[in-house]
Specification:
The structure holds 3 protein chains of 3 kinds. Chain A is of the alpha/beta class. Chain A has 9 helices and 10 strands. Chain A folds into 2 domains: 165 residues, Rossmann fold, CATH 3.40.50; 83 residues, P-loop containing nucleotide triphosphate hydrolases (Rossmann fold, 3-Layer(aba) Sandwich). In chain A, a hairpin with a 2-residue loop joins strand 9 and strand 10. Chain B has a single domain, classed as ABC transporter involved in vitamin B12 uptake, BtuC, CATH 1.10.3470. Chain C is mainly α. In chain C, 72% of the residues lie in helices and 2% in strands. Chain C is built from 20 helices and 4 strands. In chain C, a hairpin with a 2-residue loop joins strand 2 and strand 3. In chain C, helix 5 packs parallel to helix 11 and helix 12 packs across helix 14. Chain C starts with a helix and ends with a helix. The chains are: A alpha/beta, B mainly alpha, C mainly alpha. Chains in contact: A-C, B-C. Chains A and C meet through helix 2, helix 3, helix 4 and helix 6 of A and helix 1, helix 2, helix 11, helix 12 and helix 13 of C.
Chain lengths: 253, 338, 413
């Protein structure tokens, strides 16, 4: 079981100005599984995700990705290892077209972190273009491929961000509240897309508030409260756990 | 020892000017969030308030020169002297201190006019555009002054009693002779006084405290129902007055010309960055430090080891500080780091 | 892929049976049902267009002596400046327009280019080819050093760092570097300079030392043709860079630098290369200034000169291909016209007015012309930033949209 863990967050501690944000976090993300992290506001979910992508360095402990310690690496290095991330507020390139938004990460996957192809044509590489078109088609954004990304609705921006991650075929996809602020309709579309990815065997970590989303996607759920993991298990086990109910009802409200 | 003390003193008056400009620059940046490239022009305008006053006071008429008896000679005699005799001459002699009275209201007016007329439209625009529009404004001001007063430096002197040098050595009980121009001492004292005034205003008055709260967190202050906008206008006026005073009083030390604003702007931006963007104390500290550093770099002993160091020392310090400590000496985290 | 889609849909439909999901069901299938909307492999930017644009641009540049005639600007000296500052602005745009990094020190590279070219004329040869190559390389080296340090910071800190470096270069050129720069007098080519390469060919003695291209003296129109050729090459390279994946990455950096890092790019080498390339463009422009007039002075490096190229780029439209060139031409044109106007010309121009009014009009206008050209420049600067932050290119687009909008409303009514 330990052998097929893609990501191992090992005994991570993080303090902010004396405040304990994460304590003794030990988390295994298994290959091909969708792992949800839930918990009340301020439980440290986003901090944990930031530690995973190298945005925040932990005070103690380490994050191991496929047997390689990634703590202290730069964001682009971590991405190049195969970790992609969807942010809580959409991080896209508002001034570029949708197609360019997706082509940029595709180039990064193919050419690595630096390639000074100053004089070649943008779509001289048919593969990159085709791949980008394909992902856009997959996510239902193909009609708008020549529009500026800034013109998209919020829901579409989030899907575009997902497309930017998917085009890289990451071995691990981190999603920070992928449906926050979405309409019911958009939420359902996103759930659907994520299910299709799952069938391709991509490992995912999802931070989510919406229990509907969690229970329709997750194979495993970890509950975070006050910087600690208080419960872990299948969605049904977690739902039945009295400590979880207490954390949600007693802690958050 | 004396030489070192002298260099420190030499640096202090220049440092005072840097500190005053940087203080205003930081104030506008901290409160309005505007990067004002026209701030140096405000310093220059202050200097030209003094120059303008001198021109007005010395409006002259041609009269017969009585002192020359063997032929008919004429000389220019200011009206003030004609009308008030010695009192008039004394007024002209005291033009720089008197110019303070003109500078304060005029600069306040100019500052408020800038803020209302131009700057306020740029609060929400990107920093690059703020830099560009104020840069354009600086060119306009500079060229207007050039059109009005000409391109040549206009000499202006301190009152006669402040023209000599003070024997600092004797004052401090040192053995060596250490003289230092009176006016520079006065400039140093006034800059400390102005800095103290600004800090007192910000820390001791309710008005100032709201402004400081606005610097820290504008949104919250606005949520409290306080019209922070109007206060910011006042702050911009205040910054203009501080820069103007720094310029007006500096005229006997550095003969004013139309481009001193630009010269000082670059330096004072460096000062602000070294002190830490948005930190008032940092601006003052860095101003004096850099002034002193520059005066040491101008020592012949130093120059013989590192030729040209006096020309670039400030920029060099700026580069080192920005790279080693991007927030500056006393800067807060996250200011303008985007 | 179709099958996975339907199974997923089925699952979600069974899972929540509320009305929204039914709605969703029909919507999500739209794209997959339409084959024409599948991957479209038409080239985004056909390579022929690059050539075509460069040729059209070249025609416009080379026919300048004809179409500038009616504007009274068709003399070599001015057209040389159009081309040279066009190159400067086009290069500046590669940095500022694409990455959004606002440098306030690019004039330093222009000055360095000029000095390098003059030294090449003095030591190597009066031929322009080694001078241009040397200038571009040296400017590139300086840009690499200054860019490497400055690009560690962004935003206003970057602007101030570049400004600080440019001021250092300027101050040093005036003081301790006098042996290299000849201080305030400026560096000039002398009759008895060694000129090693020319001496090898056996012709280092010349009556009047002037730059030449294998015997063609770079004065007058010949100088303009040389600048125009350089401009065309510079334009073509800029075009290719803009259209390349590299150019797209630069625009990505401008748009969202954080995202660039999180999709796996090491952004600093990209910005550094953009900085070096634009520094080399500035070096080329500086070299050409020395080519048409073999003299280099430190005033070229002053920060107002850096400000001028920023203005050219903004005025024409930062981030566009033609904008910076148009901005450069306009500014140099108006500089030429306005600074030539004097009091008497103004009096003539206003001669149709009655005496008192004429004097008034002249006194109002005169600060803006002649020596006061910079005042006009400043006012223009402020107006452009306030009303047209996208520059003239944005203005044309707006006008175009207005017309198209007008047509639409006509057809609909």
């Amino acid at each position: 079981m330990k052998g097929n863990a893609v990501l191992h967050v090992a005994d991570v501690q993080k303090n902010f100005a004396g405040l304990r944000a994460l304590s003794d976090i030990d988390l295994m993300i298994e290959e091909g599984k969708t792992h949800a992290i839930i918990g009340p506001n301020g439980a440290g979910k986003s901090t944990l995700l930031n530690v995973c992508v190298g945005r925040i360095a932990p005070d103690e402990g380490a994050v191991v990705f496929k047997g390689q310690v990634i703590t202290g690496k730069k964001p682009h290095e971590i991405n190049q290892l195969g970790i992609a991330r969807v942010f809580q507020t959409p991080e896209i390139f508002p001034d570029l077209t949708l197609l360019q938004n997706v082509m940029a990460p595709a180039y990064a996957r193919r050419d690595g972190p630096i390639r000074l192809n100053l004089l070649s044509a943008l779509d001289a590489d048919k593969d990159v273009r085709a791949e980008a078109e394909h992902v856009l088609l997959d996510l239902g954004l193909i009609e708008k491929r020549h529009h500026e990304a800034a013109s998209l609705s919020r829901g579409d921006k989030r899907r575009l961000e997902l497309a930017m991650c998917l085009v890289q075929h990451p071995s691990l996809l981190l999603l920070d509240e992928p449906t926050a602020g979405m309409s019911r309709l958009d939420t359902n579309r996103t759930i659907d897309i994520l299910k299709r990815i799952k069938e391709r065997g991509m490992t995912k970590v999802i931070i989510e508030h919406d229990m509907h989303v969690v229970f329709s996607l997750a194979d495993k759920v970890s509950v975070l409260a006050q910087g600690r993991i208080i419960a872990e298990g299948t969605p049904d086990e977690v739902r039945a756990d009295p400590r979880v109910q207490e954390a949600y009802l007693g802690g958050a409200h | 020892m004396d030489a070192i003390l002298l260099q420190v003193l030499n640096g202090l008056d220049k440092g005072g000017a840097y500190a005053l400009i940087a203080l205003g620059l930081t104030l506008t940046f901290g409160t309005l969030g505007v990067v004002n490239f026209a701030h140096g022009a405000l310093f220059m305008l202050g200097a030209f308030c003094a120059v303008g006053l001198q021109e007005v006071l010395t409006l002259s008429v041609r009269v017969r020169d009585e002192s020359i008896t063997f032929f008919e000679a004429y000389k220019e005699e200011p009206y003030l002297v004609l009308w008030f005799g010695d009192t008039g001459a004394a007024i002209i002699d005291w033009v720089v201190p008197l110019s303070v009275l003109v500078t304060i209201p005029l600069m306040l007016l100019i500052g408020v006019a800038f803020e209302r007329g131009l700057i306020r439209f740029f609060y929400k625009r990107p920093h690059a555009e703020q830099i560009l529009v104020t840069f354009g404004l600086a060119i306009v001001i500079q060229e207007l002054i050039k059109a009005g007063f000409g391109a040549n430096p206009i000499p202006i002197s301190a009152p006669e009693i402040a023209r000599g040098s003070a024997d600092i050595g004797a004052m401090l009980g040192l053995s060596g002779v250490l003289t230092y121009p009176w006016w520079r001492l006065i400039y140093l004292a006034s800059s400390l006084f102005i800095i103290g005034g600004v800090f007192a205003f910000l820390n001791l008055t309710t008005y100032g405290m709201v402004v400081r709260a606005g610097m820290a967190d504008r949104e919250t202050v606005q949520l409290l129902g306080i019209n922070i906008q109007r206060r910011f206008t006042v702050v911009f006026g205040l910054a203009a007055v501080v820069a103007g005073l720094a310029g007006a009083l500096y005229t006997p030390i550095l003969t004013p010309n139309y481009h001193i604003g630009m010269d000082f702007l670059v330096l004072s931006f460096v000062v602000v960055v070294v002190g830490g963007m948005g930190s008032l104390g940092g601006a003052v500290l860095a101003g004096f430090l850099l002034g002193i550093l520059q005066s040491f770099a101008s020592l012949n002993e130093v120059k013989s080891i590192l030729p040209g160091i006096d020309q670039i020392i400030i920029y060099l310090v700026a580069v080192v500080v920005l790279l080693a400590r991007p927030r500056g000496l006393l800067g807060r985290r996250g200011v303008m780091e985007a | 892929m179709d099958t996975t889609n339907t199974t997923a849909d089925l699952k979600s439909a069974t899972m929540d049976a509320d009305t929204h999901s039914a709605h969703y069901h029909t919507k999500s299938e739209v794209p997959t049902q339409l084959p024409p909307l599948g991957p479209d492999m038409r080239p985004l930017w056909p390579p022929k267009v690059d050539i075509l644009m460069t040729v059209l641009f070249g025609i416009a540049v080379f026919s300048m002596p004809i179409w500038l005639q009616p504007f009274g600007a068709a003399y070599p000296d001015l057209m040389q400046r159009f081309a040279i500052f066009g190159i400067f602005a086009i290069g500046f745009n590669i940095l500022f327009g694409l990455t959004g990094y606002l440098s306030f020190g690019h004039a330093a590279f222009l000055g360095i280019g000029s000095y390098a070219a003059v030294w090449s004329f003095k030591l190597l040869s009066l031929n322009v080819v080694p001078a241009i190559i040397l200038s571009v390389l040296i400017a590139g080296v300086f840009a690499a050093a200054i860019g490497y340090v400055s690009l560690r910071r962004s935003g206003i800190y970057f602007s101030i760092l570049t400004l600080a470096f440019a001021q250092m270069c300027y101050n040093l050129a005036y003081s301790v570097l006098t042996p290299i720069t000849n201080g305030e007098t400026g560096l000039r080519v002398l009759r008895n300079d060694p000129r090693v390469l020319d001496a090898l060919v056996g012709s280092s003695e010349v009556a009047i030392p002037r730059a030449s291209f294998f015997g063609i003296s770079m004065t007058g129109m010949a100088g303009f043709w040389a600048c125009a050729v350089c401009l065309m090459i510079a334009f073509y390279i800029a075009l290719r860079i803009t259209r390349s994946p590299f150019g797209m990455m630069l625009r990505g950096i401008k748009s969202n630098q954080t995202r660039m890092a999180y999709v796996g790019f090491n952004t600093r080498p990209y910005t550094l290369v953009a900085f070096i390339v634009s520094g080399m463009y500035a070096g080329l422009a500086g070299a050409l200034l020395a080519v048409v007039d073999p003299l280099a002075g430190a005033e070229r490096m002053q920060w107002t000169a850096s400000g001028e190229v920023v203005l050219m780029t903004i005025l024409g439209g930062a981030g566009t291909l033609l904008g910076p060139f148009i901005g450069a031409v306009l500014i140099k044109y108006f500089e030429n016209i306005f600074s030539a106007l004097g009091h008497t010309t103004l009096s003539d121009a206003f001669s149709f007015l009655p005496d008192g009014v004429r004097e008034f009009a002249v006194s109002i206008v005169s600060p803006f012309v002649g020596e006061g050209w910079h005042l006009t420049l400043g006012v223009l600067f402020v107006l452009v930033v306030i009303f047209l932050p996208g520059g003239l290119a944005e203005g044309f687009r707006r006008i175009g949209r207005m017309f198209r909008g007008g047509n639409k409303s006509e057809t609909s009514s």
